[in-house]
Amino acid sequence: MGETRRKVLIADDTAVNRKMLTDMLEADYEVLEAKNGEEALDILEELHDDIAIVLLDIVMPKKDGFDVLEVMNERGWISKLPVIMITAEYSEQYISKANRLGAIDYVIKPFNFTIVAFRVASTIALYDKQRKLMDELQEVADRENGINTLTGLVFGEAFFNHARQYLSLHQEECCIVAIDIEHFKMLNDTYGRAKGDDMLRDLAEQLRLIEKRDGALPGYLGGDDFALVMPYDRSQVAALSNRLVNRAKNMRIGVGVLPVFGVYVIGDRDQPVEDMYDKA
Q: How far is residue 71's CA from residue 81's CA, in Å, rounded to a whole number?
């Protein structure tokens, strides 16, 4: 499967302008078009997590570019989704207002292919670097706090520490279940990271329900990896597997994007929990 192209939203009320920009960008991006601010907001409502950048005309009917920026601020989209304004001529007043509302750059009509292509590519690259940095900082914070923000589960080394405590308190036969999501990278590449995050959150929610009902200890280890320590009952483990697989199928996210399981029945409790997890 080829690499999925990034989505670009062009919002301009003039068909000629939309076509010119589409012709400039469609070789490298999947281009979405809106002919006014209302259409742009409808598209953003559905796809804001999947769109890489917005090219936004200032003067449009129904809702103009400033109206769109205001809604993007209200919904919290502007911090994650870069906007380049489209304007017929440089106006310090307009550009300054757009910058205050979160727009990062502007292009002037008539369009220069080299300038448009460079600004779109460089802006997307800049935001990608910022997201990567924020993810790295969040991972550091999660490790320090011991709780993963996305899933709400005990995270990383903190999970293994909690698991050791759990096993010291539960003398009955226990097992550790390793869970990962088959084809998770394909899911992110095809449908966008937001869909992947939705699946991680849903799986974490199901594991928290098992924690409350069966007295299990769930944890998140990063990426698409989860773990669960629980009293060993073969029928309960099988039921857990079936329930989570059926839940994933009902989400209709993608063919073959399903949780897979490994189970290790714990015998030697003196071995590191990390080794137990590796054996699952």
A: 13
The pLDDT tens digits for 219-266 are 999 999 999 999 999 998 898 899 898 888 877 665 578 899 999 999
> pLDDT tens digit string along 255-276?
578 899 999 999 999 999 999 9
d(CA 8, CA 124): 10
Q: What is the pTM of this model?
A: 0.61
Contact (CB, 8 A) for 101 and 73:
yes
CA 114 from centroid of its chain's CA atoms: 31
| 99: enclosing H helix or E strand | helix 92-100
φ and ψ of 210, to 5 deg: -65, -35
* Contact partners, residue 56, CB within 8 Å, separation at least 6: 11, 40, 65, 68, 69, 83, 84, 85, 86, 103
Q: CB neighbours (10 Å) of residue 201? A: 13
Whole-angstrom Cα distance, residue 135 to residue 222? 12
Other Cβ atoms less than 10 A from the Cβ of 53: the count is 24
Cα(65)–Cα(37) distance, integer angstroms? 6
Q: Are 124 and 6 in contact (CB under 8 A)?
A: yes
CB count within 10 Å of CB 274 equals: 12
